[in-house]
Inverse folding.
């Protein structure tokens, strides 16, 4: 059997482009005719007109009522003021505590000024005079003028000459505390306040 010479099945003819265009045009024309042929919704139009009319009537009726209420309100400003409408007079106030405070004595505890010998503040005690003078120079940089006093040790462990760096004398301990805080801000610590007299050193 000869399969090569066998005939092929005939091809179907495609519709031409003009035929397709004609079919599309006819569909569009039918759609536009159906839109144009729809009836006007008269019920919706009538309902909208009725609503607009009711709203207008409501506004007009409100406007008329406001004018009538203004006419019917009583004019309160023109009514005469009688004695019954006046407020009662304000009674005189008597403050008792003012009189009491004028005659009252107040006792306040005020601490008495510190009594006793003047205060001295020792910030260091050195065997070497150079060390004492170095601390005195650091204190002078802060603005405090110290003195260096040589004294002899009284115990066996402290025998020999000691050079004390001293500030003062101060009349009160508060004055000495003020200078001690100033030295602490300059990193100079260890100052101690004593009830000493310069003649005793």
């Amino acid at each position: 059997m000869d399969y090569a010479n066998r005939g092929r099945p005939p091809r179907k003819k495609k519709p031409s482009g003009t035929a397709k265009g004609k079919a599309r045009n006819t569909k569009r024309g039918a759609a536009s005719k159906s839109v144009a042929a729809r009836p006007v919704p008269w019920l919706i139009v009538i309902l909208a007109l009725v609503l607009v009319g009711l709203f207008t009537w409501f506004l007009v009726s409100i406007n008329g009522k406001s004018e009538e209420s203004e006419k019917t309100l009583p004019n309160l400003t023109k009514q005469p003021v009688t004695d019954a409408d006046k407020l009662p007079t304000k009674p005189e106030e008597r403050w008792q505590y003012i009189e009491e405070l004028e005659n009252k004595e107040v006792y306040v505890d005020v601490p008495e000024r510190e009594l006793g010998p003047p205060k001295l503040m020792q910030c260091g005690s050195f065997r070497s005079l150079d060390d004492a003078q170095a601390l005195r120079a650091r204190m002078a940089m802060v603005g405090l003028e110290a003195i260096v006093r040589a004294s002899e040790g009284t115990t066996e462990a402290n025998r020999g000459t000691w050079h004390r760096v001293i500030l003062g004398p101060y009349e009160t301990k508060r004055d000495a505390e003020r200078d001690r805080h100033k030295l602490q801000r300059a990193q100079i610590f260890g100052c101690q306040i004593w009830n000493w007299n310069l003649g005793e050193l």
